[in-house]
Amino acid sequence: MLNKMSKVKMSFKKTGNRLVASLIKRVISTQAILSNEKGELKAMAWTIGSAVVVVLIIVVFMTLAPDTAEDIWDSFVDYMNDAFGF
Asked: Into how many domains does the chain fold?
């Protein structure tokens, strides 16, 4: 019984070590990507701000006119299905 438990513990250690190594590699690659990024804070703020405004407009529209919003969404989905052959 003790031998089986030690094998199980060793198996978990090996798996855990591989997961930690994989996580460390992923963090390092993410840091490398982020350190190479160039851009302006103004452009990022404008992009995020406009996305927030669009989402708020959609939420307000869905709250004030749910049937109309559903009809528009259904017609959009039908158009996309026809256009791309889904």
From this structure: 2
One-letter identity of residue 85: G
Q: Count Cβ atoms below 10 Å from residue 61 Cβ, excluding itself.
A: 13
Residues 65 and 34 in one domain: no
Taking the model in full, what pTM does it have?
0.44
Q: What is the extent of the structural domain holding 82?
A: 39-86
Using a 10 angstrom Cβ sphere, with 0-12 exposed, 13-18 middle and 19 or more buried, the burial of residue 69 is middle
Between CA 27 and CA 69 the distance in angstroms is 41
3: confidence class by pLDDT, cuts 50, 70, 90: low
Sign of CA dihedral 68, 71, 76, 79: negative
Token pair listed for 76: 């959009």
**C-alpha angle with apex 70: 66 to 76, nearest 5 degrees?**
145
